Amino acid sequence: MTRRILLLGGTTEARKLAERLGHDARFETLMSLAGRTRSPKPTPVTVRVGGFGGVDGLIDFLAQNPFDVVVDATHPFAVQMSANAAKATARTGIDLLRIERAEWTPVAGDKWTSVACLEAATNELAEMGQRVFLGVGRQSLAPFANKPQHHYVIRVIDPPDIPAGMTHYEIITGLGPFRTQDDIELFRAKKIDVVVTKNSGGKATASKIAAARELALPVIMIERPKLEVGTQRVKVPSVDKAMAWLEAHYVSSTKRSV
Ligand code: NAP
User: Fold this and answer.
1) How far, in Å, is the centroid of ligand 1 from the Cα of 185?
2) E strand or H helix at 97, and its extent?
3) What is the pTM of this model?
4) Which amino acid residue places its CA nearest to atom 45 of ligand 1?
5) Of 40, 68, 152, 213, which is the most buried if we count CB atoms within 10 A?
6) Count of H helices and E strands in the chain?
7) Are 207 and 178 in contact (CB under 8 A)?
8) Ligand 1 atom 32: the closest Cα is on which residue?
9) Can you give the C-alpha Rg of the chain in angstroms?
10) Which residue has the least CA distance to atom 27 on ligand 1?
11) Residues near ligand 1 (Cβ within 6 A)
């Protein structure tokens, strides 16, 4: 019996899981993307693009397209979509599996300042220096326009809309994974004083953390927002664990937990 999966994507994990599921006849997978990245990498599964229209829209979508499970592999900072998926699956009784990669953690000698949000990050800048490497994603630039006295080196996947008021900046486009040595050279060439990043975790963009460590640069680390839903959910940290959970629940004769 083929099992149907709605895979909420926008991350490396979602793409890697799609690569495995797309070649696995036991599963039929639809990957959903918000549509933020202009040219997403190709995937062997069917893809739909765009929001569902909130919790109610997602419930309608699930009613019209029966799935056995929703796999929420969205980014740790995509809390709205995760909250909507938790509420919609709770109301419809559809299984929910969350893939959430581990956070980055500092090692001895790291000069991290942890903050709760983008605005708090901007408030730390004055103490840290003039030239700022911004690795927060193109949707998250607006608060930094309130500190126009800094020069921002902004690395993004697609060219961003520059928020009004941000005057000193340069854009570097690229899709990870990046190499630590390249980021060391970049930070040296751009005379970076401080690195600002979300605590996304994962390998693809960890090079900026390693490069900051190597150059003894301060890092302003925006910690993950908390999900404001009390719904029970199964959470796994990796694609391997997600695949094991799917197999245990929908292929093996005996259910077990990861
Ligand atoms: P968000 O704030 O949690 O979601 C805002 C709205 O975008 C959702 O309510 C939903 O619209 C739509 N949406 C988000 N993910 C979707 C998906 N996979 N499929 C269909 N609709 C989706 O999300 P976000 O922070 O803007 O992130 C958008 C996408 O970029 C996500 O896929 C996420 O994994 C990826 N991403 C985000 C970050 C980040 O820092 N936030 C970083 C890397 C990648 P409706 O309410 O209309 O359904």
Assistant:
1) 32
2) strand 95-99
3) 0.93
4) 51
5) 152
6) 7, 12
7) yes
8) 10
9) 20
10) 78
11) 8-11, 32-34, 36, 51-54, 57-58, 74-75, 77-81, 84, 137, 139, 198
7 three-class SS = strand
Residue 74 · residue 82 · CB < 8 Å: yes
- Written as one string, the DSSP assignment of 36-52 is -SSSPPP-SSEEEES--
Tell me the C-alpha distance between 35 and 42, whole Å: 14
Q: Which amino acid is at 170?
A: E
Q: Which residue owns the Cα nearest ligand 1 atom 40?
A: 77
Q: Contacts for 148-151 with beta carbons within 8 Å, 24 or more apart?
A: 150/125
pLDDT at 38: 85
Question: What does the block give as tokens for 18?
Answer: 């799609």
Query: Which ligand 1 atom sits closest to the C-alpha of 58?
Result: 48
Residue that is written with structure tokens 């929908």 in the block: 250
Residues of the chain under the 70 pLDDT cut: 228-232, 253-258
Question: Which tens digits make up the pLDDT trace of 86-125?
Answer: 999 999 999 999 999 999 999 999 999 999 999 999 999 9
| Dihedrals phi, psi of 55, to nearest 5 degrees | -60, -45
